[in-house]
Task: structure prediction
Amino acid sequence: MSAPTSAGAPVTIPATGFPVERFTLPNGLRVVLTPDRSAPVIAVGVVYDVGIRSEPQGRTGFAHLFEHLMFQGSENLEKLAHFRYVQASGGVFNGSTHLDYTDYYETLPSNALERALFLEADRMRRPELTAENLANQIAVVKEEIRVNVKNRPYGGFPWLLLPPVMFDTFANAHDGYGSFEDLESATVEDAQSFFSTYYAPGNAVLAVGGDLDVAGATALIERHFGDVPARTVPTRPSFAEPDLTSERRAVHHDAMAPLPAVAMAWRVPDPVGDLSAYLPYVVLAEVLTDGDASRLQERLVLTDAIATSVSGYLGFMGDPFDVRDPTALLLQAHFPPSVQAETVITAIDQEIERLAGSGLAPGELSRVQARLAAHLLREVDAVLGRTLSIAVLEQQRGRAELINDLPHLLAEVTAEQVVAAAQTLRPARRAVLELVPGSAQ
Amino acid sequence: MSPQHAAPRRTVPALEEPRALPEPEVAERTLATGLKVVAVRRGTVPLVEIRLRIPFAGAAAGEDVSVAAVLANTVLSGTGSHTNVELAAELQKIGGGLSVGVDPDRLVVSGNTLSDGLGRLLEILNEVLTTATYPEREVGTERERLADRIQIAFSQPSQLVRRALLRRIYGTHPYAIETPEPDQVRAIESPAVRALHAERVLPVGSVLVLVGNIDPDATLDLVEQALGGWSPTGVAHRTPPAPPLAAGPLLLVDRPGSVQSSLRVALPAVPRAHADYAAFQLANLVFGGYFSSRLVENIREDKGYTYSPHSSVDHSAAGSVTLVSADVATEVTAPALLEIAYELGRIATLPPTAEELEQARQYAIGTLALSVSSQAGLAGMLIALAGTGLDLNWLAEHPIRLAKVTLEEVAAAAAGYLAPSGGVTVVLGDAEAVTGPLGALGPVDRP
Result:
């Protein structure tokens, strides 16, 4: 309930109490449930522990292409049936491919719960992997890449373009959307092998959130997923790489872009194995870039007017709590053509240096923490966002409950920890990508 | 269906009985100043979402929308008691944020806060509404930044084709220009922005929506206390009715070197309050308004021409329009456009099947419930409805209307609004490559 807050009085960081129930089926499928009966809607998400980093060499973009194939028919459903059954139930669906996982989900009126479970179980048993479907979805994916990357100014900047500057291994450095050559040479056999390796029930987490009764939902899940055959679960290899010891720079020419831009990234502690060391970097990114009162907005955009926009975030896909090691803190800025990239980089260095040397201003940390809490709460308000969050937290950490704890854990980060994090953002540890616009080539 | 497919062994489960959406706790009051306030309790998370819609019709002098654009980008640049940085810090303290958007109909201030901070958020909102100062230095910085951002936006195919389409559809109507040119923005000075604020940032005709874990009645008192002093008087203007669509030759806009063409077809539509709206909405869904539509199944799932074709309805205060969009590889530009025209012709002349209609009907009813199940979703929907005088009653009644629509009504709406002969087509792409093939389909105009 709201009460007037007088100017200057800090607000308390509120907590949520979303319940989490969990169990594992004999075939290895892990299940998490988060009931909330305040509206008659549910979300169902299946997260497989395979992403861009696991795709084979010579098959860039395969994890994403395979995601498309999971919608093309399954053991008991012809092509197009999945879409029709979800939408004819009043629901929406999608899937997405990340560095470390691939998710499939629908959100629907709660009377469609059993139907949604059936649809996910059916394609977990056997997707319809045919040459015709493969050729059709290769064409669709190529159009997706054209609309998002090739035909668009700043396409892929910096998420596809900065990893190859920062990393050396194929797993961490390659283009996750894929080259047209690799996509076109994908075969049905590749798809079958990818499915049998990575899409075992023991390599997945099923999450259901919203208007459900725990006992009833448990029975339905056992009915539909219980007989999906257990298969060997692959051991996820380490994708670790040594940190940079000297600065790396690259230049990208974007013929369609009107204005220059720069992006830079530094490695950060393991988000899963060392959460307490990682959280100060999440706070630091906000101190530097969240809103007009942040360090870099105030300096670069408002005071010096050498940038039109600045942003900072954790993870190449902006995913601080659903990515594994190695990952990075990224900063990026767009700036007018009259400004040199070096001017922007120097100003960023100076602001980081000032923070690392002189610390935070009174009140600066608590206000950033309050805003971070609001961002996190906003993301889990809709049942779909909440359900997918608990699925990934459970898969990568076995800790779906973290959804309720993160605002407080971030509020416990100290000024000393943020300053210490800033002290690690040295030029010698970073990768820098300059985007040169077409007119400047 | 693929030939290798084995006969189904399992059947898809039926739907259970639907559960009704609980009636939201809501309170409404129109303040003495003319501001209408709607407060709704939706308590999933300890946050509050606010949306303030201020009528802004006629705010553009002639075709110059640049003053309004600069106002939206600088209203948070300073007040009688705080600088821009201090305002941002005050908002952060309560976990809050404010942002401002403008179009030819309205100025919308959107915000959110941890719920304990609502009182403070409203105080800050009041301070901005009543004492925004538009300092010259900050206005100078922001207008340059805005001009650069517009330049970036106009390098994006989606923005370029939209600009050409709006000019083609609306001619001299205010809706023809949504975004000013960078040079227009660079010429705007503080006094013009201050004058526009004094004349148009008024409580008369404005609507404030609050959704969150709030007590609706107590929230109205809180709003009255915080915003009661926002009381300048004036007149809320209305946008003149939009002109009917005038069909004509395809307009081709050149973007040399494009590897894709952006296809857009505009068609007539009806506003949400219109008697035909439910039938029209279902006709549009069957045609191209969702994934399980004829258009998507044809040009994506069968032919692989495009990633995300769709047909959506844009509602503005003075008129509604259907927009069909597809971004396709350059070499299939004409074939893809042919398929769009074919599917429009098919929906306009052959009634949908009963199965197609039921599927679209359930989708429309279900997704309406989904879209208002989050605080931000409900706040956004209520402020959109407020633009045409609709409210929670429309939200409650629309599923009932959708449930009653007949196949004949849908067929009539399709014939009346989706016939390809009534469409306006604009294509953005590499003219050298696509002019010839497009010319085979009909006359092609160049700007």
Notes: Residues 1-5 of chain A have pLDDT under 50 and may be disordered. The CA atoms of residues 393 and 402 of chain A lie 7 Å apart. The two ends of chain A are 57 Å apart (CA to CA).
